[in-house]
């Protein structure tokens, strides 16, 4: 046996009116939408006429406020009231041939009025003829319908809502005016509001971005001024957005501050010129977080709450079209205004890089533009790749500093890849553009320096090692470029850590010092740092001939300290003591030499 569903009307109305929409103020939107649709329907039927929408507030002492919302649209006959108004889920618009021209389609919007009022009263007169009727609906799902005297009432519909104690707020003049302006700012029919004393035509002036988007590019400054005054956005630029897909028309304002990826962006999205909402992030590609959009769409499908779009093919196509235009803007910048593009990337670099690591197309677009610090200066990746066949990266800042000193002398340039996303970006670059990527570290890099044949230098090396014995540093003699660099100190990560621990130990209290000692013990085995003396340097060549052991030791120690400083290694107390002792000796020797010179 077949049974029909039963519907608990009270529950249904409660569900639709109180739980579908996120905010009671949407009743203004639903009223406005019905008024606009009714005018559209009357136009289709009669041709041109003077459309009008008026919201009139009555606020009297001792009474709850009353709103009368009037449109001079197509109206409803008695039969249509039963069929469309009083049948939940039935909409005249969905069954109309011109359904695409209407804003509504679900047949539930009017129920949102129950969020702010216990009763909906609607007086209407149809353009199709017949007497006017009054429909009064209660939130418990009952209604009455009364046929009125034909006393010359104009064609159109008036909805009357009386506020409840708790919804008074939505019936304040300023509140109502702002809500109407918010939803109806770009609607093509005049919308008026009054409370008897105050009066506003809320959409008297069209915002300039519409005309700009439609091709009037001369209004760019006006759009920027509008963004500043109305949206509080000091936009860096404005990008027109147009597209057949969905019938898109609007602008993207380039934000002047860095945004977090994934952070919700506020956009104003209008559907058939009526504001749909501001949290419509699914209309834009995920990476479009650096813009704020003002956008009208004609042919996308809203959800029943009208607070989002359906995720369908039309939305996908529109999103792609918008993405293509934002990409186009970035490409255009790269070609005609690289300075601006650089500033854009610098401002939004973290989210842009984050996205580039995941999205190959976006990466391709910007790959050559990413700027890195290299041992040959700050450089765009594209420029680096054009100059150096192998991408050499260092992932540790200390190592970068050590290698940077010698790399360029060998015609190399190393990329400082120590910041977030650097390594994945370089990997992607290498794989997408077929380049060799090599991770270098200071130790292996030092191995490539040319070893000097040990013959005859063992004694020299042993004496130099003795001079640095207390410092945990071994000496080797090599030849390398640049010849102006007398010595290169290479310290591995563990050794650096040990250095840091020792530096901390010197200022630590007893308990903490003990802890640091234990910690340091684990690294005892790798204590040796390496000082590479450069035999290409005249000073090192002269050093081979110094016989005075005290002078020899001092000179080696000073080379060590100098290499320490050049490599940006932290100075421990040992190095500081060497520096000060060494300087005193140098001064003493200098003075003595000067003195001897004077005597001669
Ligand atoms: N101001 C009006 N003038 C003429 N007809 C109206 C008016 N308001 C409502 N109606 C009729 O009542 C029906 C139901 O309206 P309701 O607002 O509940 O839903 P809808 O506008 O059809 O769809 P949606 O739920 O998407 O808003 C409409 O389809 C229309 O036929």
From TrEMBL:
Transmembrane segments: none annotated. Pfam families: HATPase_c_3 (PF13589). GO terms for molecular function: ATP binding; ATP hydrolysis activity; ATP-dependent protein folding chaperone; unfolded protein binding. The keyword Nucleotide-binding applies. ATP binds at residues 30, 34, 71, 157. The keyword NAD does not apply. Keywords: ATP-binding, Chaperone, Nucleotide-binding. InterPro entries: HATPase_C_sf, HSP90_C, Hsp90_fam, Hsp90_N, Ribosomal_Su5_D2-typ_SF. Belongs to the heat shock protein 90 family. This is ATP-binding protein.
């Amino acid at each position: 046996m077949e049974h029909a569903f039963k519907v608990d009307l009270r529950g249904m109305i409660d569900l639709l009116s109180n739980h579908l929409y996120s905010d009671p103020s949407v009743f203004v939107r639903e009223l406005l939408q019905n008024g606009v649709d009714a005018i559209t329907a009357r136009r289709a039927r009669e041709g041109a006429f003077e459309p009008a929408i008026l919201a009139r507030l009555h606020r009297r002492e001792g009474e709850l406020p009353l709103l009368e919302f009037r449109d001079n649209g197509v109206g409803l006959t008695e039969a249509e009231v039963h069929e469309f108004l009083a049948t939940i889920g039935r909409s005249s618009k969905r069954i109309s041939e011109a359904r695409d021209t209407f804003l509504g389609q679900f047949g539930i919007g009017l129920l949102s009025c129950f969020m702010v009022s216990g009763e909906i009263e609607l007086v209407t007169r149809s353009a199709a003829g017949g007497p006017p009727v009054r429909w009064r609906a209660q939130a418990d799902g009952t209604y009455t319908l009364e046929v009125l005297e034909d006393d010359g009432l104009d064609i159109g519909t008036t909805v009357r809502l009386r506020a409840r104690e708790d919804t008074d707020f939505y019936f304040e003049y300023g509140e109502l005016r702002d809500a109407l302006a918010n939803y109806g700012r770009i609607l093509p029919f005049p919308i008026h509001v009054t409370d008897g004393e105050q009066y506003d035509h809320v959409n008297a002036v069209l915002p300039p971005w519409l005309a700009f988007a439609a091709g009037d590019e001369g209004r760019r400054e006006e759009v920027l001024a509008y963004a500043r005054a109305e949206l509080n956005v000091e936009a860096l630029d404005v990008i027109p957005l147009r597209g057949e897909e969905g019938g898109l028309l609007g602008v993207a304002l380039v934000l002047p501050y860095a945004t977090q990826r994934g952070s919700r962006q506020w956009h104003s999205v209008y559907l058939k010129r009526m504001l749909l909402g501001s949290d419509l992030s699914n209309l834009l590609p995920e990476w479009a977080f650096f813009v704020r959009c003002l956008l009208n769409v004609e042919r996308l499908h809203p959800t029943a709450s009208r607070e989002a779009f359906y995720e369908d093919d039309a939305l996908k196509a529109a999103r792609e079209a918008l993405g293509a235009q934002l990409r186009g803007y970035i490409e255009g910048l790269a070609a005609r205004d690289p300075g601006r593009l650089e500033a854009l990337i610098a401002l939004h670099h973290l989210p842009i890089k984050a996205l580039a690591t995941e999205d190959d197309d976006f990466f391709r677009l910007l790959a050559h533009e990413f700027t890195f610090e290299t041992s040959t200066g700050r450089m765009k990746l594209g420029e680096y790749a054009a100059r150096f066949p192998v991408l050499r990266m260092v992932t540790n800042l200390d190592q970068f500093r050590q290698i940077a000193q010698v790399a360029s002398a060998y015609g190399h340039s190393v990329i400082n890849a120590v910041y977030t996303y650097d390594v994945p970006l370089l990997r992607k670059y290498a794989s997408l553009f077929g380049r060799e990527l090599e991770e270098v570290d200071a130790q292996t890099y030092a191995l490539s320096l040319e070893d000097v044949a040990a013959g005859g230098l063992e004694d020299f090396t042993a004496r130099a090692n003795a001079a640095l014995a207390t410092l945990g540093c071994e000496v080797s003699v090599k030849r390398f470029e640049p010849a102006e660099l007398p010595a290169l100190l290479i310290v591995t990560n563990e050794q650096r850590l040990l250095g840091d621990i020792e530096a901390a130990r010197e200022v630590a209290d007893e308990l903490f010092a003990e802890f640091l000692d234990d910690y340091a013990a684990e690294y005892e085995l790798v204590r040796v740092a390496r000082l590479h003396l450069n035999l290409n340097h005249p000073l090192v060549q002269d050093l081979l001939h110094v016989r005075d052991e005290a002078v020899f030791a001092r000179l080696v120690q000073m080379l060590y300290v100098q290499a320490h400083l050049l490599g940006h290694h932290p100075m421990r107390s040992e190095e500081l003591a060497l520096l000060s002792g060494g300087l005193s000796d140098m001064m003493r020797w200098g003075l003595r030499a000067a003195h001897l010179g004077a005597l001669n």
